Each structure stands twice: as C-alpha cells, then as structure tokens.
Amino acid sequence: MNSPAIMRVLPMAFVLALCLSLLGCGSGKINKENYDKLEIGMTSSQVEQILGPGKNDKSAPGAQKAGGEVMVWERGKVTIRIGLVDGKLASKFISEKN
After folding, report:
1. Could you give the CA distance from residue 85 to residue 43 in angstroms, rounded to a whole number?
2. For labeling, which of 11, 47, 60, 96 is most exposed (least CB within 10 Å)?
3. CATH of the domain at 41
4. What is the pTM of this model?
5. Looking at the predicted structure, is the pLDDT value of residue 2 above 80?
6. Is residue 75, in this structure, part of any structural domain at all?
C-alpha cells in the first residue's frame, strides 16, 4: 500500500471507530436500573430519553390493537419490552437470560 492510499483510508477508519464507540455508549442504557425508572403513563419520548431509541415490534401479539405498539430494547442478555397505547406507556417487561 502506498502512502496516498494510507492517507485516504486512515480518516475513514477513524470515523468508523468513532461511530462504533458512540453507538456502544447508547446501548449501556439497557439495564434494570433504567427499566425501574419507567413509569406507566410516560410518553414514548420520555421512555426514549431513558433507554434511547427502541425498535418497533410489529410482530408482537396485540401490538396493533387499540392504537397500541410494542417497542423493544436489547443489549446482551437483557431485553426490555414496553407496550404503548396512544403514545403512552401502558405496560413494561424485562427479561434477563442466564
């Protein structure tokens, strides 16, 4: 590899490493401590302030009924699921695999 090629690849590698490290920081929010902060009636925005952005689980049973949706956060062995009705937290569940 010649020097100009290295100079083109090095900045891209740095940006990629920075992006990956920032993504890893957000996932540290998925834990029992933050789960315990979730309160019934919170808005979806308030939940995302605590846990970060989640994934909409359209395949969850009953997710589409009564204006509801199910959101999921996963990190390692921890999965947090919440049920939203009309944009507000109606149910929450955490599971931790052994």
Report:
1. 10
2. 11
3. 3.30.1450.10
4. 0.68
5. no
6. yes
